TrEMBL record:
This is DUF3243 domain-containing protein.
Length: 84
């Protein structure tokens, strides 16, 4: 259990670092959210979740329509920023 939480924390840290780099590069919040959406699409289609947190995110992504996925992507960016 602790190992899975560490993996999820590392994922949040990784995303937070990417968001920070994007902000320093002058990307707008909308562009960052679009990138998060594209990352979510890729992960949902290509990656098998390795822990329950990733499974929850994939399950949420899979049941959402495109607009809801955009909201979820923005929420993931906020989560990453809050923990970075």
């Amino acid at each position: 259990m602790a190992t899975m939480l560490k993996v999820f924390d590392r994922w949040k840290e990784f995303l937070g670092e990417r968001v920070e780099q994007a902000e320093r590069a002058g990307m707008t919040e909308e562009t960052i959210s679009q990138l998060a959406f594209q990352i979510g699409e890729f992960l949902s289609n290509k990656i098998d979740p390795e822990n329950k947190e990733e499974r929850v995110l994939k399950d949420l992504w899979d049941v959402c329509d495109e607009e809801e996925r955009k909201v979820l992507a923005r929420a993931m960016v906020k989560l990453a920023k809050a923990h970075h």
